[in-house]
Each structure stands twice: as C-alpha cells, then as structure tokens.
Amino acid sequence: xxxxxxxxxxxxxxxxxxxxxxxxxxxxxxxxxxxxxxxxxxxxxxxxxxxxxxxxxxxxxxxxxxxxxxxxxxxxxxxxxxxxxxxxxxxxxxxxxxxxxxxxxxxxxxxxxxxxxxxxxxxxxxxxxxxxxxxxxxxxxxxxxxxxxxxxxxxxxxxxxxxxxxxxxxxxxxxxxxxxxxxxxxxxxxxxxxxxxxxxxxxxxxxxxxxxxxxxxxxxxxxxxxxxxxxxxxxxxxxxxxxxxxxxxxxxxxxxxxxxxxxxxxxxxxxxxxxxxxxxxxxxxxxxxxxxxxxxxxxxxxxxxxxxxxxxxxxxxxxxxxxxxxxxxxxxxxxxxxxxxxxxxxxxxxxxxxxxxxxxxxxxxxxx
Length: 368
Known about the structure:
Domain GHMP kinase C-terminal: 275-347
Number of helices: 10
Order of helices and strands: EEEEHEHHHEEEHHHHHEEHEE
Shape: globular
Largest sheet: 8 strands, mixed
InterPro entries: Galactokinase (IPR000705), Galactokinase_CS (IPR019741), GalKase_N (IPR019539), GHMP_kinase_C_dom (IPR013750), GHMP_kinase_C_sf (IPR036554), GHMP_kinase_N_dom (IPR006204), GHMP_knse_ATP-bd_CS (IPR006203), Mevalonate/galactokinase (IPR006206)
CATH topology of the largest domain: Ribosomal Protein S5, domain 2
Strand content: 15-25%
CATH architecture of the largest domain: 2-Layer Sandwich
Number of strands: 12
Protein name: Galactokinase
Distance between the termini: 17 Å
GO molecular function, one term: ATP binding
Domain GHMP kinase N-terminal: 80-165
Structural class: alpha+beta
Number of domains: 2
C-alpha cells in the first residue's frame, strides 16, 4: 500500500443482536452487542481523481472515479466502500482521492453485520484521516445512507449503531425513534454464562426482496391502524381486531411483542437478578420470528431446537433471517456439550456443519 507514512487504521466490529429483531425500522427498541470480530480499514492519500479500494479477501482492487460515484455504479463488496464516500460527499464533506485497504474476520453472510462493520470502518477511518470532525451519530446516518441509498438494502440503523456505539461488557439499548441509548451491563463471565453464536453457513440474504416485503407489510399495517409506526400500537388485541389481513396481523403481533420482550429483557438485566432469566424471552422471540414474521429457516430452527434440547437457557435466530446465525445462552460449562449437540443435529438433518463461537460483548469502532 502506497503512502504508509500517512496511514490511518480503524477497526469496526460486527454485531449480534441479543433481542429486538425487525423492530428498528418500526421505530422500536433493539439490544445488540458488538463482537470481537470486525473489519479494519486503512486509508492513505493518493494522487488523481479516483477512489481505490482493496480487500485481502479479493484478488483485484477496484478503482472508482469520484466523478462517477452514484447508486448503481459499483457492485459487490466495493459498493460499501464507494457508498460511504458518496454519502460523505453528499453531506458536503470533502473526500479526495484516497486508497482504502480492507481486512476482516467477520464471517460473510452469517447475519453478523459484516457490511455494517465494513461501512463503519471506512467511515471512521475517513473521518479521522481527513479530519472531518463528524460525531458518531452523524456517521450512523452516513453509513445507513450508504446501505439504503447507495447499495439498495432497506435496513434500519441497528447494525451501524451497534458497530459505532457499543461498549465492552455491555449491550446497547437503543430507541430507534428518538436515538436515545444507554449501555446495559452484561457480564456473562461473572454469571457463569456464555452466549454461543451458531453460524449456520446458510447464506444470509437481504437483497432478494424478502426484507423489503416485511418492511412494506409493516408500513401498510401502520397505515391501516392510523399510527406513525407499529411501535405506537399500545393495545395489541384491539389492533389485531381492526385488521382483516392475517399476514398483517402476524407482522403486527411480532413487532409489538418483540418490543415488549426487549424492554422486559432490559428490566431483568437491570434488576440484578440472574441473567439466565432472559432465556425464555430469547426463545419466545425465535418462535415469533419463525411463525409470525416468517423469517427463520430450516437451519436456524435446527440450531435453536438442538441448543434448547441440550440445556440452553434460551435460543433464537439473530439478524434479518432467511439464513445467517442463531444464538444460545448457556451455562459456560455446557458450551462444548451444546455445541456438540448442534453439530450432531445438523449432521442428522443432512446439513453442512455449522461454525460455533462464543460472543463476548466488545467495544465499538476504534483506531488501531
């Protein structure tokens, strides 16, 4: 990489959502943690009028003329780099020709926000390297615009918020309407617990339209109910009675009950009781995502059922769904047994072997 004397490196983590799935774009509540795995972006100056993006995971770099930065002009992994530059320039930030080199260890397609980690690493590195002076809240807007407006994936701000704002040893309670947030202590080691992540190796895909259809269902249900967002539904039974579309009823039931589960989880963590008590809430979240929101998959269901059968306190799919990862809250001493049970269940179902690792609540984006 040229110009090493001007090198700026930032690392942004992937995330796993403890609970609060598909609530972010409904103005609801989420509770993610940042992971030890992440993406590192190194920025150096270069001459000319083009952005150069490199990745250790790709054979060839991608060069993009700054004058041609627009949605649809760049495809694949480089779109997430170009989209951040495009969003920054669109806000009036002067981003000249630079070289951005990427390296990372977030499993791609596992639903652990590899794309948000990439975006946030690039955004924080550019913010530092170019002395843009942008606050983390602004960088969330920049990276979300990259995802939504440049790449074309209609996600909420959960992933970017977690990657930029999480702290070690805590989960992030985020109100997706007001932006209010606070760190909720989550010391799993002290409680003798572990949070296992089961990467099912089933590709996690959001660009195929299913995610957009869920968002459209929620928007239509909110319109029919006369509320700004489903977060505003206070009487679930009355709301369900007003809807004559069973699919919309199920979407509403998931969002309203999932918001309640997030707040109940935080209340249980705040009261100092056993962290294991949140386990049933995790399992109830999975059932709701599977049956009412219809975003689970065979692999995710096998992982959850096997973990619960092996003694997990609770388990659920995490992320957008349609593949990706599940989590299981287990006694630390049972981690190996639960992992083995999940692996046996996948083999018995004729599925490819999953990858299982322990999630440790980690710090958000930082200079390295």
